[in-house]
Structure formats: C-alpha cells, structure tokens
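A sample follows:
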Amino acid sequence: MYLRMINNLKGDLVFFSLLLVFLLFGINVSSAKEVTYLDVKNMSIVTDFTDVYSYYDDNFKVEDLTDEYLKYDFSKLLVPDGVLGFIGKNYQRLHVNFVSVEKDKDDGKIYHVIGNTKVKNNSLDFEGEIEVVNIRSTPPRYGIDDIYRNKGIEKQGIFIGKYSFRENSKERYSGKFDGIMVLDWLMHKDLGLSHNLDQGDSTRNNQYEGKWVSYKTGISKVANWGMVRIPNSRWKPNSKGPFLDMGAAEFSVNPDYKKYGWE
C-alpha cells in the first residue's frame, strides 16, 4: 500500500517537469490568486493544470518530434475508451463519448471530433477540433518488471493538444468546452502507434483538462475527463480537498460525492 502511494506521489510531482517544457518551448504561463492561466497560442484556459499528465521519470526527455510525427494519424488513439469525467465544484458526473475523430486532409495539426455529452438526464451532441501543440518523446517505460522490454517498442511519448468542443447552441443547458489534453503513445515496429496503458498504479491516458462555459449565462465550470483517471480529481502535494478520487491503485469514488451521478 505504501509503495503504491509513493509511486503515485512520484507521478504527480513530475508535473513540474512538464511545466518546465511549457516554459522552455513558448507556452506562456502566468499566475493568478486562485488559479493559473495557461495561454496556448493566445487562448487562455482557466484551470490549474496540476494533473494534466503526471507520470514521467526524473530524466524527463524533451525531444521535440512534432515535425517528424505530424505525418502519422493519431485519430484512433484520440478516441478514448471508458471515459471518466466530472464537471463543476461538486464533481458532478460528466459522460463524454467520442463518436468519430478524423485528421484534417490539409492541415496535419488539426483533428475533427464529433461526440456527445451527458450530465444527469441532459444529453447533447458536440463537434469541434483538437489542435496539435507538441509531440514529444519520453524516457522508455516497459511496464511492471520491464515485461515489454525487447518487445518491439521503438519510441514512446506524449501528444499535447488544445481542444475546443461546441455543443448544439439550440439545445438547453448547452455550452462550449475548451482546454488542453495529453495522449500517452508508443510506437511499435510492427503494430505502429498505440496507447501506452501499462504504467503501474499511475496508469492513465487521454487526459482532458479545461472548462465548460454556458452559452446562455456565461457561467464557467471546471470540466475534466480521461481514461482510467481524471485530471485534478485526487489528492496531490500542496493541494486542498476534498477530492473525488480516493483510490491508490485505481479510480475509487469518494462516498461524499456518489450522489452526484457516481452511484
């Protein structure tokens, strides 16, 4: 149990390595009293981003593969499986379903997304885009006890993008999602691109962290989702609770929030 907690802490603390990457490669970060604004190409995203992705070794590698990897199609990997998500301060359950993701035929940095969301009994369709910000390599990780070493893995890395998903404005309680996302990928010499989902207790992928803004009222709410874990839903150093995810080895809902759609 204690070993798992240590591994999770190591994963969360390494966020600062990712933050350093943002600072070094032209993504401006400025501070506010309650939150941090991450400005990606002049688009301010209100969230603290302390958990957008958090499993890297201390020797975080910042090799920029963007130009090299834009030729690859990440569409299939950008369709998450088994999404967990929340919206608002009470961690209300947010269901997000990606129906299709297609790479733009002319602009290799753009992916077109069609999907739907559900909060309580309100279901809405959305469409939008994911735009590549960076594609970078990470140190090799071969799973528990290196079980995937010498199994044909050529490279591993992260796909960092910004997203904008627009719900149907004609529907009630509709709005727009904006934020940043990170996909953890690996390149296999025979199988090509695939998800990297063998990271021990810190396993997670397709992490989306951002905000939802109501078309009608302009009210903004935190809206995060992902595979296996949800960004900023569990305890981490120097953060204030209570938290939704109380699990060490896997996602586990805090009983205090089960009434918000998690029964």
Summary: Residues 1-60 have pLDDT under 50 and may be disordered. DSSP finds three helices and 13 strands in the chain. The first strand starts at residue 28 and ends at 31.
